[in-house]
Amino acid sequence: MIGDGKENTMQQITTSVQLVLAQHCNGTKNGRLFGGQLMAWIDVVGAVAARRYAHAEVTTACIDHLDFIAAAHLNDMVVQEARVTWTGRTSMEVRVDSFVEHRDGTRTLVNRAFGVYVALDDEEKPAPVLPFTPETEEEQADWDAAVKRRQIRLGKS
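Above: the chain's sequence. Below: its structure in token form.
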């Protein structure tokens, strides 16, 4: 349980749903979602996931891996799922998967992004976060990949 001083082993998923409106499109004739708008939504849902995990305010340190896999278009419903994949002393990596959800409920992955957020105390200084311990094979794979991304960010690849 978060807040009891023990390691955090519960992976919580934060979900966001957005409807692609005309103001979110980049002006193409087929109403394609502007990548910058999707990036803003990613940062918000990623920060919410990090904030929930840390039980503290957070700030974005970086969005260091962002893959545009497919397009979203006008009137599409974009569903985002964010989860913590790695923790350091004060920072957390959050994976955000963005899908277009079709009317029949099926989803198509359109983007995967990884962001790093730092927990902040009341004086806006970095604050410690509880360790995240992977429990499933998927969580362990996400953790291992996060460690590699961190090494690249730190120039230790």
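The chain has two helices and five strands.
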